[in-house]
Design the sequence.
């Protein structure tokens, strides 16, 4: 676009979709993490926490998913964690917990989900919300819904 001279450099810069760039950056980081073996090292570090009782493993895996989804964004983290789930003691439960916790993680911070970034980017002309203003609402909403969701799944699998 810059070479064609159809758009000015500032017009071309405004046409760049930052949300897509953030998602792609997260995916590239995850690919590098996997290629360099850091994914396995992270799993090896957390594996002892995931081997306890059903409840302990569920809480640990959901907590890991919540934190990592906000570090890498939820889609790249799920791409990373999908290799771990089949190796865990209750894969069916862990798949459900991964879906639950990575989805709810998007409510914790603005960077937890690309969808959040898209919404707030679209609304920025009308509404300004700081990172910390978002966390003030997102933290209790996320934790409450995650605690209830994990409890329901653990109880459902106890039958």
Sequence:
């Amino acid at each position: 676009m810059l070479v064609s001279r159809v758009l000015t450099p500032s017009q071309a810069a405004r046409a760049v979709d930052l949300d897509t760039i953030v998602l792609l950056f997260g995916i590239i980081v995850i690919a590098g993490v996997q290629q360099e073996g850091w994914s396995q090292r992270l799993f090896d570090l957390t594996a002892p926490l995931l081997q306890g009782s059903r409840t302990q493993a569920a809480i640990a895996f959901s907590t890991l998913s919540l934190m990592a989804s906000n570090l890498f964004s939820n889609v790249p983290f799920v791409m990373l964690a999908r290799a771990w789930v089949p190796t865990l003691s209750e894969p069916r439960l862990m798949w459900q917990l991964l879906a639950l916790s990575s989805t709810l993680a998007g409510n914790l911070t603005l960077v937890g989900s690309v969808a959040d970034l898209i919404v707030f980017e679209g609304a920025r002309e009308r509404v300004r919300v700081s990172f910390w203003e978002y966390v003030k609402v997102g933290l209790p909403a996320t934790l409450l819904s995650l605690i209830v969701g994990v409890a329901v799944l653990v109880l459902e699998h106890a039958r």
